[in-house]
Amino acid sequence: AQSVAQPEDQVNVAEGNPLTVKCTYSVSGNPYLFWYVQYPNRGLQFLLKYITGDNLVKGSYGFEAEFNKSQTSFHLKKPSALVSDSALYFCAVRDGNYGGSQGNLIFGKGTKLSVKP
Amino acid sequence: ETGVTQTPRHLVMGMTNKKSLKCEQHLGHNAMYWYKQSAKKPLELMFVYNFKEQTENNSVPSRFSPECPNSSHLFLHLHTLQPEDSALYLCASSQFSEVGGYTFGSGTRLTVV
Lengths: 117, 113
Known about the structure:
Chain A is mainly beta. Chain A contains no helices and twelve strands. Helix content of chain A is 0%, strand content 51%. Chain A is globular, with a radius of gyration of 14 Å. Chain A starts with a strand and ends with a strand. By secondary structure, chain B is mainly β. Chain B has no helices and eleven strands. Chain B has strands at residues 4-7, 10-13, 18-25, 31-37, 44-50, 53-57, 64-70, 73-79, 87-94, 103-104, 108-112. Chain B is globular, with a radius of gyration of 13 Å. Chain A binds chain B through residues 4, 9, 32, 34, 36, 41-46, 49, 51, 90, 92, 94, 96, 99-101, 104-110, and chain B through 2, 4, 6, 33, 35, 40-43, 45, 48, 55-56, 90, 92, 94, 96, 99-107, 109.
């Protein structure tokens, strides 16, 4: 069964500094990887995804993520953080080799990003 | 608006009440999902419907009863809930045959008193 780990409950960054939110995954087949962001009292919004191809994926709002197969990681990054980036970030994985239940999107527990001025 | 609409946004109910959550998507998707979001826990996948047929029930207690009358609408019927069922309930949809992710609604914040 697939799983996702986000080892940090919270990440604190000063505005203008680079940020990284960590994610590691486990699937039996090919991983399809996603990042979502959740602002207060809102649903999850799609940021970016890795399906195949270039390991560095660029997404919305200046975010990017790097797929590392050997480390089974998909860390979210941004070169310069903004206060408005403060939110809850979720990593998710889907097993690309299956349809049905094994192809469902499985989420981590989320990491709260706090960017201070 | 994401194209997935959930109502109501907030719901307070007693343990003996019966209520329903509604989800509607206008994206032409053929798969719909219910997730439960509790503080500091991973999102829990509750139910999956593909082409109106339930394909997954992740050991959800019977006090939660889903209904999918067509590909655009999904309901979650609630009865005799417990205080620990208080959470944000999120609906999502996707195109089952495609590789992409899901589109989420804004959720219903449920409080059981």
